[in-house]
Specification:
With 266 residues, chain A is mostly helical. Chain A contains eleven helices and no strands. Chain A starts with 17 loop residues before the first helix and ends with a helix. Chain B is an all-alpha fold and 263 residues long. Helix content of chain B is 77%, strand content 0%. Classes of the chains: A mainly alpha (266), B mainly alpha (263).
């Protein structure tokens, strides 16, 4: 008689975890050394907590409400800089996006050049552009606007060419088969398809630009951030607190308006 | 054959109204831009900038001391890494608090409001505040990025939690698991890959942000950069900007390839 079959109790082995553990270890090491390098210590942070609470109290309890009135003009300038910067930037973005889209021109040399050009420009922070423009155009709102124009055209052009590349090719092919020129393909097949997306990209970059122009003044490029230097260096913390509060309210309100419009567009 | 070409639809009244509003907004905006013309010295400045780009300050690049460019770049990266790590951890509780399927509709509104309010502050303003709290240096930058990034990561995390498959959570619930067990054995493992991808994406943004924090004294390359722009030391500006561009491109490449592998 054959003995009854014994079921193997063996559980299949898990695949080796060494690679995973190694990458986790590498990760921890990287973060640890970053913390060491920046001299980050939780104890210092906790010890600084008291001082921090005191500073926050001086900022906001109470803020200098009377000072708000003098902040209205620079705040207006901040909003104006971001409106104009977004406007011109998104206009320049249109040709840049068209020239970078692979499926429109179909000349890899040109599209490649514009893509890399856009990528290069996007690596430079707008604050650096603002500082550079300020040394050419002088202090004021103009260099701030220019910095936002550069930033916005880079961002909207990138989002734009990605949108153009993902359109439905049907209308384009239909027009091509009738022998339509590139220009009429653009006008009747591409633009109608990406217009709502384009408008939402513009609003999105407006939301980013509002925040950016709220700090551009720090390098002399106009707007409200100029006043941080003025108040903090005179230790007028309650006044700095009112700048923070005003910025908060204005950015929040404009964000709300812009995201409402964006929701309706799509 | 008669051609029957349909007429283009008339332009809606609404569209005209919005266009007029838009024109007014832009004209109002333009009234705030005071163009004073190019400065008289601009020609010379631009020529000097050009010379700076042609002859970057190589000595600064090879200066291995604490005042050199390599140190400042490494410090910038360290700020970005540490700041991203902190925000990655801090974002999880905020995200949970903002997720409808975890805490219910009412509470999630509070969480969402908290995250939105954090996002409102530019990191530079947070950096100014932290410089006052912990003193000038890299730690202020780390904290500014760590807090500011919650605004974006918390939102992305909570969106990912809200759209996750609730099966594992229900399975654990059915076998009587506690809330903490559900969190660590169902919610977090399900969304972990998403969270890591978002955190890496934020790291790319933070590397760019960290390069400007130095302007307010929060460590990194920003301070030498703004200082050399101010003192019109263009050959130094150009070496800093070139190194910055290369660093950002390398960081983007590494982080992008890890993100691709995660999926």
């Amino acid at each position: 008689m054959r003995p009854p079959h014994e079921f193997s109790q063996k559980i299949p082995q898990k695949p080796s975890d060494i690679k995973r553990y190694l990458s986790i270890l590498l990760f921890i090491l990287l973060i640890y050394s970053a913390g060491k390098f920046t001299r980050f210590s939780v104890r210092d942070l906790i010890e600084g907590m008291n001082e921090g609470a005191g500073f926050l109290k001086e900022l906001f309890f109470p803020p200098d409400w009377a000072y708000m009135r003098r902040l209205i003009d620079p705040m207006k300038e901040t909003i104006q800089i971001s409106i104009v910067g977004t406007f011109f930037g998104s206009i320049f973005a249109i040709p840049l996006a068209i020239l970078s889209a692979r499926n429109f021109l179909q000349k890899p040399l040109i599209t490649g050049f514009f893509r890399n050009f856009l990528g290069l420009f996007r690596t430079i922070p707008s604050l650096v552009f603002a500082a550079l423009f300020a040394s050419v155009f002088g202090l004021g709102s103009f260099p701030g606007m220019m910095a936002l124009v550069v930033f916005t055209s880079g961002l909207v052009a990138k989002l734009g060419f990605e949108a153009i590349e993902s359109i439905d090719p049907g209308p384009v092919e239909a027009l091509e088969s009738c022998g339509a020129s590139k220009l009429s393909i653009l006008r009747y097949a591409i633009i109608p398809q990406i217009l709502p997306q384009y408008l939402s990209f513009v609003l999105y970059s407006f939301e980013i630009n509002i925040r950016a122009s709220a700090v551009l003044g720090y390098v002399g490029a106009g707007g409200i951030a100029n006043y941080y230097n003025r108040t903090l260096s005179f230790l007028q913390y309650d006044r700095a607190g009112s700048i923070v509060i005003l910025t908060f309210v204005v950015v929040m309100a404009l964000d709300l308006v812009s995201s409402r419009i964006r929701e309706r567009l799509l | 054959m008669k051609m029957n070409i349909p007429k283009a639809p008339p332009i809606k009244k609404q569209t005209i109204f919005y266009a007029i509003v838009l024109i007014f907004v832009i004209v109002w905006g333009l009234s705030g831009i005071n163009y004073k013309g190019i400065m008289a010295s601009a020609g010379g400045t631009i020529r000097a900038m050009g010379r700076g780009i042609l002859y970057p300050d190589i000595e600064y690049l090879t200066n291995m001391t604490i005042d050199g460019l390599p140190y400042a770049i490494v410090e910038t990266l360290a700020i970005a890494i540490a700041g991203t790590f902190i925000s990655g951890i801090l974002s999880v509780p905020f995200a949970l608090l903002a997720s409808q399927n975890i805490v219910g509709k009412r509470v999630s509104r509070i969480g969402k409001f908290l995250i939105t309010s954090i996002r409102v502050f530019p990191e530079l303003i947070l950096a100014i505040i932290f410089v006052k709290i912990v003193g000038p240096g890299a730690v202020a930058g780390v904290m500014a990025l760590g807090i500011h990034s919650i605004g974006m990561l918390g939102k992305l995390f909570s969106e990912s939690i809200e759209s996750m498959d609730m099966g594992p959570v229900e399975a654990l619930e059915a076998s009587g698991a506690s809330a903490v067990q559900k969190l660590f054995h169902a919610v977090i493992p399900t969304v972990m890959t998403d969270l890591m991808g978002f955190t890496l994406y934020r790291f790319e943004i933070n590397t760019r942000a960290a390069s400007t924090l130095g302007i307010v004294g929060a460590g990194g390359i920003g301070a030498p950069l703004i200082f050399s722009i101010g003192s019109r030391n263009w050959s130094r500006v150009s070496i800093i900007v070139i190194t910055l561009i290369i660093t950002v491109i390398i960081v983007d490449m590494i982080s992008g390839s890890i993100r691709k592998r995660l999926q």
